[in-house]
Amino acid sequence: MTEGAGSVGERSLRKAAALLAQARRVVVFTGAGISAESGVPTFRDALTGLWRSFDARRLATPDAFRDDPALVWGWYEWRRARVGRAHPNAGHVAVAAIEARVPHAVVVTQNVDDLHERAGSVAPIHLHGSLSAPRCSACARPAPLPTEPPLPDGAPDEQGDGRRVAPPRCAHCAGPVRPGVVWFGEALPGAALEAAVEAASACDLLLTVGTSGLVHPAAEIPRVAARFGAPVVQVNPEETPLDAVADVNLRGPAAQVLPALVRAAWDAADPA
Ligand code: OAD
């Protein structure tokens, strides 16, 4: 066992570190799990407080917004407030360290938070959009973020009902403004997906971190790398469908495993 790396085995960590130390072109593919230790709930976590009776996967749909825009906008404002109070954790910092060290590194994230950027990652590719880029749901023009302070967390109300917040109106066409994220059933931003596939097909190591690997097409990214012959290292405390393509599984939380991996890789590369 390695200190600070939870229950990750020493052999697996060494194997992954050797791959990282040799790699020239790395893709780091992240999901909600990398932000979990910053206090941002994953999609598979039960929602808490006001949102305990809602399923995140049902709120993240165009139908949900059409049926009840204030419910969905309120949920995203709640998430934006959580992210605003959160800080990047040691996992995000380790990803930025990989980028600084490896000749060509690309971060591809499914997350709509900005914790990679705040940890120092340069231009991560956001496959599922961003909480800070709302746009009009009718004419698609970008809209400013609301100026009022983001919602505070509240005590659960008696019905367990979510907090509704009417979305702002578009300055051009008065349509309801929507969060700038990709919902279930919507296409991913073409340029982002293309850049991610290109990076995955040309990399010599893909590190997948904190994703359930269930939501497609994003979940194809590690599989593309594997098809093109790159080794895949997975960091996740749980088993996922990506176990099938992973050459090394590091079972543990990202904020512990990634710093240990980075230390072991650079130690392997530059023995003191
Ligand atoms: P999920 O919520 O599906 O999965 C989170 C993953 O993180 C799980 O596999 C957990 O085991 C793992 N995890 C939890 N804590 C962790 C930790 N401390 N360190 C490392 N891993 C940890 O999130 P995503 O895979 O990101 O899409 O979900 C993919 C997409 O589905 C999201 O971008 C979102 C969602 O619904 C849309 O909104 C379109």
Characterization of this structure:
The structure is a single chain. Strand 2 (104-109), helix 7 and strand 3 (125-126) form a beta-alpha-beta unit. The protein has a six-stranded parallel beta sheet, with helices on both faces. It has helices at 10-22, 33-36, 56-59, 62-67, 69-85, 90-101, 115-119, 190-202, 220-227, 254-269, and strands at 25-30, 104-109, 125-126, 135-136, 177-178, 205-209, 232-235, 248-250. The chain has two domains: 1-39 and 88-130 and 188-272, 3-Layer(aba) Sandwich (Rossmann fold), CATH 3.40.50.1220; 41-85 and 135-178, SIR2/SIRT2 'Small Domain' (2-Layer Sandwich), CATH 3.30.1600. Mean pLDDT is 90; it is low at 155-160. The relative contact order is 0.23. It is an alpha/beta fold and 272 residues long. The structure holds 2'-O-acetyl adenosine-5-diphosphoribose. Residues 31-33, 36-37, 42-44, 57, 60, 110, 128, 182-184, 210-212, 214-215, 235-238, 240, 253-254 line the site of 2'-O-acetyl adenosine-5-diphosphoribose.
Structural topology:
Elements: H1 10-22, E1 25-30, H2 33-36, H3 56-59, H4 62-67, H5 69-85, H6 90-101, E2 104-109, H7 115-119, E3 125-126, E4 135-136, E5 177-178, H8 190-202, E6 205-209, H9 220-227, E7 232-235, E8 248-250, H10 254-269
Parallel strand pairs: 1-2, 1-6, 2-3, 6-7, 7-8
Antiparallel strand pairs: 4-5
2'-O-acetyl adenosine-5-diphosphoribose (OAD) binds at residues 31-33, 36-37, 42-44, 57, 60, 110, 128, 182-184, 210-212, 214-215, 235-238, 240, 253-254.
